[in-house]
Amino acid sequence: MNKLIIALLFVSLSYGQESYKSTSGIIFKEGDTLRIGSPLSHLGWKAIFKDKERTTLISNKNFIDKEVVVKSINTNSDPVSLSFLIYRKEFYINIDDALANNELIPKVKLELANNKFQKKYELLKTLKDFLDNGTITKEEYQKEKTKILNQ
Question: Is the pTM of this model over 0.70?
Fold first, then answer.
């Protein structure tokens, strides 16, 4: 009886991983939001599949820039994969291959992009405050504004 309980516990712990640290050091967790990148070739994505056996590639270009939520992570497969739902269907990604091919944009990159966007507009607001309180001239404001917007 004890052996059965230990065996069941081992199986449940080893199969249901909730996180994975990729070869590039990025940690993926169930529930993370990711964005699908562009396919590696005109034939479709090389690391995103319609089935668990990883035989049917995705070629639907509507997947580009779609945000998906990690449903599960399978660390028992080689290569390690995660699954997500889109259009009510489950799909599978070879994590490390997708990262190497830029077919998957992890949460870390999304957050960095959002921070850059927010910082740009925070700078513009500060610049406008300087114009309004007379710290800089209108010409200086326009010159700096153009620099910030062109970054």
Answer: no
